Amino acid sequence: MTVTAEFGTEIPPIQVHVESAPMKVFTLITDDPNPIHWDPDAVRAAGLGDRVINQGGLNVGYVLNAVTAWTGSRASIIGTKVRFLGNAFAGDDLVAGGAVASIDHSTTPSTATLNVWLRHEDGADLLAGTVTVRLPDSGK
Amino acid sequence: MIVLADEGVVSPPELRELRERLVGFRFPDGATVIRRHEVWLGNEAMLVPGDADGPLPALWPLIAGLRGMGTNVADLCELARMGPDDSIMFGELEISQAAPLEIDTEYSIQGEIRDVVRRTGKRSGVFDVVTFELQVLTPSGTSAATVTNSFVFVRRS
Question: Does B58 contact chain A (CB < 8 Å)?
Fold first, then answer.
C-alpha cells in the first residue's frame, strides 16, 4: 500500500459513537477498577454527570484506528504521545483525525509524525498529541 | 493547608513527603500474557477494523503494562494518598515500540515512578501529577515497549 505523506497531509477522519458496553470489556481487559467506567451511580457520586465515562485508553484507540486506516497497517505505529483534555461519555459522538507534521527520510523505511486529535462533534477537544509511523512503500 | 474560596479547606498530602516516598519507587516486577480471545474482545471494544488475527493494535503496550505492572491502580492511589473525595484522571500517555506485541507471549513488566509534581488550576484546584514508566520486556529480556503514564490526582479531601 502506498500513502501520500507530505507536510500538512490530512488523514481521513473517523466518526465514533461512544457506548457503555465496550467500556465494560475494556475494564476487564485492563483490570481497571475505576467504577466511573461502568457504574452510573459512581459517576453521579463523583459529580461528573449521569453517564459512564469512556476510558482514556479507548479514546487513544480511536485515534490510532484513524492513523492505521491511513497507513494500512496496525504495525506501522512506533510512537504515541498524547495529552488528555476532556472526558467522553456514553452516547457522545466523536471525531478522530490528524495531519502530517513532519517526515523523516533519513530512516529506512521513512517515518512520519502526525499531529492527532480527538474531538466531540461540537469541536471540544478531548485528546491531542502526536503519533509516529513507519511509512509503507516509501521507496527506500 | 490550602484554602479554596468555594470549596472550604483542603489538606492534600505534604508534597515533600510524597516526592521523597514516591520518586524512584519501583513497582514489584510483574508479568502478563495476552490471549487471543482478549485481542478479539479488545478489538471490538476499541472499534479496531479488520482481521482480529492481524498485528496487535498499538494500544496493547499500555494494556499489558497496566495489568502486568506488579501493582494495580488501586495500590497506586493508596501510594499517592488518594483521599475519599479526591479523583484520578489520565493526564498524559507516551508509548514507544519497535513492533506490535504478540499473543501467547509472557511479557515481564518493570515499573518505576519517575516524578511527582503539584499544580493548582482555577477549576480543579490542587492536583498532583504522578508520572511512572513501564518497561515491557520480552522473555529474552529485550525491550518490547516503553509506556510512560501520568495520572492526575485532584485533591478535594
Answer: yes
| Residue A27 in domain | no
Determine whether A1 is exposed, middle or buried from the number of CB atoms within 10 Å of its CB (0-12, 13-18, 19+): exposed
B2-154 CATH choice from 3.30.70.20, 3.40.1180.10, 3.10.129.10, 1.50.10.150: 3.10.129.10
Q: Which residue has the cell 496496525?
A: A74
Report helix, strand or coil for B7. Answer: coil
What's the gap in Å between the CA of A59 and the closest CA on chain B?
A: 8
Residue pLDDT, tens place only, A25-39? 999 999 888 899 999
Question: Considering only CB atoms, which chain A residues are within 8 Å of B38?
Answer: 29
List CB contacts (< 8 A) between A84 and chain B.
Answer: 89-93
Q: How far apart are the first and last CA of chain B?
A: 11
Structural domain that includes position A101: 10-18+55-134
ipTM, 2 dp: 0.93
pLDDT in tens, B99-147: 999 999 999 999 999 999 999 988 778 999 999 999 999 999 999 999 9
